[in-house]
């Protein structure tokens, strides 16, 4: 469901690059959307949304086109009648969970996912998770997080989910430093990174989220973690509370981002520069070659990124530095100054950055600039297309494997495709 908030613009100059800060009406999906990719990633988990019919429709329509097997998510609809008493609502929730676990013995991890209808806000899902955990432990672990659309954007659902997993992770069993990669990656991308870390001689690498509950990573003061996604502020904080240390790096998008991301880990684990060079060079060369044709297509073209997925700043860095695109404006829903510091340094000095959104003002700026390509949410794409602009849905960038060397050209292709299609239409 889209969220509308009113406010006024502010310009913040506390960064190396000035940022226009807006807090007006915004158009974003809520955190429930994260279930669409998270349920595919953690294969023995189930996501039970505690919400309204609107939440059920959102999840069904967002995930519907991608479901080919029995889904591992559902919505417990809290009707008005359930609200007569909270006891009734809690009993109803317990009844649904008991039924679900009896029907699906493969579930090892159950997330109760909160939403924003007022009737759900009144329910204490953390107490419900505790109560139900006592009933089903150790066979099923029950956790909770919020996917509410109030003041959040859709990728924050993953952040809330991963942050809820951190306290459930066991402590580290050895004193040796361990690398933890944090953020959902497609399995194929994860496997590529495992091969690279292996070749660099870095030993065991763990991932959060894991592919199944048994693979929950060990976490402790000897954990060094690399963020694979730029929207994981709460998860990073929860890891730091367990003593883990974040390795500062750009994000693994494009050849440059992937190399710098891998290098941050290699340096922290004492990998010799010569070995790093020898291992990564063939991948870099291949990926750079694959990008040439896209640079020919996209070089010099202008692009406007509306705030949506929080991937906008790393994407802008890739588009500008590796594909020579001209950045008209780079919007992001939230700007985590610390986690994005390495990215911001790589953006052009005169880049127009904006944080938050006042959608009407931003649309005016976009129309005035008439960029060659606009990256935006689904709600803005259709009206802009109707005005003759070429758009790319930002949500596709979250669903598609785009990280790492072997995906660099695929990432470029996602931006080239709408331009090629438009060119064919007008020819
Ligand atoms: Fe809509 Fe809130 Fe449900 Fe999201 S959580 S679908 S914003 S009602």
From TrEMBL:
An individual GO BP term: light-independent bacteriochlorophyll biosynthetic process
Gene Ontology terms for molecular function: 4 iron, 4 sulfur cluster binding; ATP binding; metal ion binding; oxidoreductase activity, acting on iron-sulfur proteins as donors; oxidoreductase activity, acting on the CH-CH group of donors, iron-sulfur protein as acceptor
Keywords in alphabetical order: 4Fe-4S, ATP-binding, Bacteriochlorophyll biosynthesis, Chlorophyll biosynthesis, Iron, Iron-sulfur, Metal-binding, Nucleotide-binding, Oxidoreductase, Photosynthesis
Residue intervals of the Nitrogenase/oxidoreductase component domain: 30-417
Pathway: Porphyrin-containing compound metabolism; bacteriochlorophyll biosynthesis (light-independent)
One Pfam family matching this protein: Oxidored_nitro
EC number in record: 1.3.7.7
InterPro entries: LIPOR_BchN/ChlN, Nase/OxRdtase_comp1, Protochl_reductN
Subunit and partners: Protochlorophyllide reductase is composed of three subunits; BchL, BchN and BchB. Forms a heterotetramer of two BchB and two BchN subunits.
Name this protein carries in UniProt: Light-independent protochlorophyllide reductase subunit N
């Amino acid at each position: 469901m889209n969220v509308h908030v009113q406010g006024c613009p502010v310009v913040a100059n506390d960064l190396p690059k000035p940022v226009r800060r807006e807090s007006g009406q915004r158009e974003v999906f809520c955190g429930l959307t994260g279930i669409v990719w998270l349920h595919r990633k953690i294969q023995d988990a189930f996501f039970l949304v505690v919400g309204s019919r609107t939440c059920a429709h959102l999840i069904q329509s967002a995930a519907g086109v991608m479901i080919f097997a029995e889904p591992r998510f559902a919505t417990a609809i809290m009707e008005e009648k359930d609200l007569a008493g909270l006891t009734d609502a809690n009993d109803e929730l317990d009844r649904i969970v008991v039924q679900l676990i009896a029907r699906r013995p493969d579930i090892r991890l159950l997330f109760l996912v909160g939403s924003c209808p007022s009737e759900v806000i009144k329910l204490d899902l953390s107490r419900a998770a505790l109560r139900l955990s006592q009933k089903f432990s150790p066979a099923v672990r029950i956790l909770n997080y919020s996917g509410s659309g109030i003041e959040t954007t859709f990728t924050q659902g993953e952040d809330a989910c991963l942050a809820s997993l951190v306290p459930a992770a066991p402590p580290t069993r050895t004193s040796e430093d361990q690398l933890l990669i944090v953020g959902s990656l497609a399995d194929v991308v994860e496997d590529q990174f495992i091969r690279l870390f292996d070749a660099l001689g870095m030993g065991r690498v763990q991932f959060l989220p894991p592919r199944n509950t048994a693979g929950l990573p060990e976490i402790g003061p000897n954990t060094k973690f690399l963020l694979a996604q730029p929207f994981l502020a709460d998860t990073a904080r929860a890891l730091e509370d367990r003593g883990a240390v974040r390795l500062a790096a750009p994000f693994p998008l494009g050849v440059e981002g992937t190399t710098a991301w891998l290098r941050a880990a290699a340096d922290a684990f004492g990998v010799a520069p010569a070995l790093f060079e020898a291992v990564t060079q063939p991948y870099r060369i291949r990926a750079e070659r694959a990008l040439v044709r896209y640079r020919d297509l996209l070089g010099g073209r202008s692009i406007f990124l509306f705030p949506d997925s929080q991937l906008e700043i790393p994407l802008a860095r890739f588009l500008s530095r590796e594909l020579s695109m001209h950045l008209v404006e780079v919007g992001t829903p939230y700007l985590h100054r610390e986690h994005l510091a390495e990215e911001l340094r790589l953006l052009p000095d005169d880049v127009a950055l904006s944080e938050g959104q006042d959608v009407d003002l931003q649309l005016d700026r976009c129309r005035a600039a008439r960029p060659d390509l606009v990256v935006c949410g689904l709600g803005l794409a259709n009206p802009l297309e109707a005005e003759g602009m070429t758009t790319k849905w930002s949500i596709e960038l979250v669903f598609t494997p785009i990280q790492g060397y072997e995906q660099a050209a695929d990432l470029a292709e996602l931006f080239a495709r709408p331009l090629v299609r438009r060119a064919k239409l007008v020819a």
